[in-house]
Amino acid sequence: MQINVIDFFCGCGGTSAGLRKSGMHVIAGIDFDHNAIETYRRNFPEAIALNTDIRDLNFETLDNIVFPHKNEIMVFSACAPCQPFSKQNRFKNNQDERICLLDEFHRFVVHFKPDYIILENVPGMQKVKEGPLTRFLKLLDNLDYKYDFDVKNAMNYGVPQSRRRLVLLACKHGVIKLPTETYGAGKIPYKTIREYIEKYPPINAGECHKYIPNHQSAHLSPLLMERISSLKEGEDRRNWSEELKLKCHINHKGHTDVYGRLSWDKPSITLTTKCISLSNGRFGHPEQNRALSVREAAALQTFDDDFIFYGSLGATAKQVGNAVPVDFAAALGKEIISNIQTLSELHKL
Description:
Layout: E1 3-8, H1 14-22, E2 25-31, H2 34-43, E3 48-51, H3 59-66, E4 73-78, H4 101-112, E5 116-121, H5 132-142, E6 146-153, E7 164-171, H6 193-197, H7 222-229, H8 294-300, H9 313-322, H10 326-345
Parallel strand pairs: 1-2, 1-4, 2-3, 4-5
Antiparallel strand pairs: 5-7, 6-7
Helix pairs in contact: 1-10, 4-5
């Protein structure tokens, strides 16, 4: 039986790519960001891409998409904008309208009652008393869904990046659990940066490769070039000579990742929307004098090389940084497929 996916807050399509990789059929993606939805549209020609605010989305639009598949298994995925709960957000505001976007997802769950639900967001949401997650769990309880949720690290599922996320799987027909972690101590060794980006040909800062899509890096000022040139693999601003140090970093022990180089044989730090900027994290190439290219960052998010990102350099980096790692989503998809097989054998599905 075909397993269909509607991806709410789909962004450029990390979750969709992973679920498609696991064997599911993506039928629609929904996002407000016009750059992200253009990338989505071009990479998922089989799906309907809706460039709209979920608050403006009505049931009739999705009824027309869902109805042809009414006798098939339906999966709803939702990765609502998470910045209000992110540690990276220094300007938290309890009135931030994005806090309520997950609540908008409720009405579609109530109306369609999908067989499975995937929720992914930043750690921290689960700590907010009477917050969006609490309200969503109450909804699932009222609708008799079974669910499992926890904070998981993508590198424990074969992603070459330390990326902790709150993940939830819900099932309408029976018990479901999050997938077992298969990488780490005593298991399969963690994937490394070398395995994913060493293959790309060298480029200079500010250069775009002629033949490899999105293999483009940000321009660096002469001073930044001097700073990155002075660092070896794995080093950071603490290794600068005195004349290269910023005044704000003198006697400041924090923010050690900024301006740093990555290490070949380790997983990456968490990629952000500023993943091609030296000054915003340990995003320096392990040996070339530049920050990561968009293509390299996408590889560390486990996107295949034939997945092309559209928009400006900044827009494509934002899409990559916001994405759910493809192989992380694939692990969730495989767990759902396994659950479907189990419930089918028990005649519950």
